[in-house]
TrEMBL record:
Stretches the record annotates as Disordered: 1-47, 236-268
Protein name, UniProt field: Rad60/SUMO-like domain-containing protein
Matches recorded under PANTHER family: KETIMINE REDUCTASE MU-CRYSTALLIN
Database matches in SUPFAM superfamilies: NAD(P)-binding Rossmann-fold domains (SSF51735), Ubiquitin-like (SSF54236)
Rad60/SUMO-like domain segment(s): 58-110
Biased composition (Low complexity): 237-259
Organism encoding this protein: Friedmanniomyces simplex
Length: 580
């Protein structure tokens, strides 16, 4: 349902009242009646104005207000009167921030007011519109704000994203996150081999489009290995040592590597682009550098399933770029102190080493920066770096894959990263693993062997197996069914059917639903997103073999981008231009 357009208009002096549903009596409240918002008796009585609120279900409340009525009181009245709007409201204000003590005098009464989504329980601060257009915030230094996030910030962002993905997967056209309002992305391929993707999307908080260009890596750089892979380097002692033919970097010790060359310059294969955010009226509200945000929002979705995994002690990551970095960082934030071994498998040793160094010193130019994941001096996690040049590459690769509780695949590979037998034979099936594949995004690209996906969706009869094996869910989890069936090489080459994949958004409860069920049991809802209340589903997601495949969804960018703009304004990051 498209929200009705609304404005705040001057009204003649009439009794104050409220109406629901455009004046129709839907049984959701009284029609008419006094609205207890009298002006101070000692002050002159100005003309009242009509102020309209609406919730996501389309229910409206119109209140005639004096110009000195506090907006906080108006919002409180709506939450009290509109029974079905208690959990999620759309308030007709946006742009610069107003407090609940702001009055109608601070608003331009002649302008049309746009839509902004907020939570009813966060009513102390909400949007306001002063002037003809909202403020526009440019966030170029995305690194700064992303690295300021704590575990609680990540859980809050994941809940917002989980709600949006839930609506995407389950709602009809009454919700702006619905899949009907998400156009397919399109791409432009240039003569130099680069690809530019255009990803428009709609969300409750507005709309937006992301432009990203992906340039193929330089062949010479990508193929170059490092003979120094045989070094066993310790970050922590006063000197590095060469002792065995194994690429192992221990983060538990306490020094820097003085003899090591500086980290390599950023690869030309990295994603470049921007995310433009608009309100529902088409006004630009934000412009965000998409290079870091793309990796961050992808990892934000992938690590949603990490929160309640029974064990995350051994983490194996393929790749060492931005995607790998943010998957590792969020895993460490969400499961602090629980990751004992980090195994990075990549083609370039220096890139992997730079990734590790960045984890523990992401803002070297800021001496006052406090790293939310701690520092290398107190870390008990051991990091092993492995490249194909290692003389025992195949043995160590099998060891790292078999030992892993969690595997992140973050490379645009055109061939499987490891043999299917590592996971599909009886020995490989003994351990439950969470595997996230986010690097391949075209039909010819594969990170996982198709046999691994076929095994995951095949019907299994427990009594027929003589060997121990972990629970299979009978499906592969994807961010978008339509996108993965068309673009995900693993899904296409495994010839999976639509009923063999399930969208991530279907697995989670909305925040209000989780809170309601927790309250009914006398419990406090966990921070972050919560799984649907199903024992079989919970056992599979927490202990079984789970594969998540993502090709990207514009909705993720808009939801996360709007949250970043909000946080950037609150923290004074970026440049804000009024009436842009």
């Amino acid at each position: 349902m498209t929200p009705p357009a609304s404005t705040v208009e001057h009204e003649a002096e009439t009794p104050q009242h409220e109406t629901f549903g455009n004046g129709d009596d839907n049984g959701d409240g009284d029609r008419g009646g006094d609205n207890d918002f009298p002006a101070d008796a000692d002050e002159p009585q100005p003309q009242p104005a009509a102020l309209t609120f609406a919730d996501v279900n389309g229910f409206e409340l119109t209140i005639k207000l004096k110009r000195n009525t506090k907006l906080g009181k108006a919002m409180e009245a709506f939450a009290q009167r509109a029974e079905k709007a208690r959990e999620s409201l759309r308030f007709l204000f946006e742009g610069v921030r107003l407090t609940q003590d702001a009055t109608m005098e601070s608003m331009d009464m002649e302008v049309g007011i746009g839509w902004m989504y907020t939570q009813a329980n966060n009513s102390k601060v909400f949007g306001g519109c002063i002037g003809s257009r909202p403020a526009n915030t440019f966030v170029a230094d995305v690194n700064r704000i992303l690295h300021s996030f704590t575990r609680d910030d990540i859980l809050e962002l994941q809940q917002s994203l989980a709600d949006a993905l839930h609506w995407y997967s389950t709602s009809n056209d009454a919700n702006d996150c619905c899949s009907d309002f998400q156009p397919e992305r399109t791409h432009l391929k240039r003569q130099d081999g680069s690809t530019t993707l255009f990803m428009p999307a709609s969300a409750l908080t507005g709309q937006g489009v992301k432009f990203v260009s992906i340039v193929p890596p330089d062949a010479n750089t990508a193929a170059a290995g490092l003979p120094a892979l045989a070094e066993n380097m310790s970050i922590g002692s006063d000197q590095s040592s060469v002792s065995s033919p194994r690429s192992s970097m221990s983060i538990a010790s306490q020094t820097s590597i003085s003899s090591a060359p500086p980290p390599p310059a950023p690869s030309v294969s990295t994603i470049r682009g921007s995310l433009t955010l608009l309100d529902s009226l088409g006004n630009t509200t934000g412009l965000v550098n998409a290079e870091e945000v793309t990796a961050f929002r992808t990892a934000l979705a992938s690590t949603m399933l990490l929160k309640k995994r029974q064990s995350v002690h051994d983490l194996t990551v393929f790749g060492a770029g931005k995607q790998a970095y943010w998957h590792i960082r969020l895993a460490m934030l969400l499961r602090p102190g629980e990751i004992h071994h980090l195994n990075i498998v990549t083609r370039n040793f220096d890139t992997a080493r730079a990734c590790i160094m960045r984890l523990y010193n992401p803002q070297p130019e800021d001496p006052n920066y406090m790293n939310a994941i701690g520092d290398k001096y107190n870390s008990k996690m051991k990091a092993n770096l492995l490249t194909p040049m290692h003389t025992e590459y195949e043995r160590l690769l099998k060891e790292y894959v078999r030992a892993a509780n969690v595997i992140f695949c973050t490379t645009p590979s055109s061939s499987p990263l490891f043999p299917a037998s590592y996971l599909t034979n009886p020995e490989g099936r003994k351990k439950g693993r969470y595997i996230a594949c986010i690097g391949s995004y075209k039909p010819h690209m594969v990170e996982l062997h198709p046999d691994i996906l076929r095994d995951a969706v095949a019907p299994h009869h427990e009594h027929r197996h003589h060997h121990k094996r972990q629970k299979e869910g009978g499906a592969v989890i994807v961010d978008t069914v339509s996108g993965c069936l068309k673009e995900a090489g693993e899904v296409i080459q495994a010839k999976l059917l639509p009923d063999q994949v399930v969208e991530l958004g279907e697995l989670f409860m909305l925040k209000r639903e989780a809170a309601s069920k927790a309250a009914a049991k006398g419990m406090k809802v966990d921070g972050g997103c919560n799984f649907q209340d199903n024992s079989g589903l919970l056992e599979w997601l927490t202990r079984g073999n789970v594969i998540y495949k993502s090709v990207g969804l514009g909705l993720m960018d808009v939801v996360v981008g709007n949250e970043l703009i909000r946080m950037a304004r609150e923290r004074g990051v970026g440049t804000t231009i009024e009436n842009f």
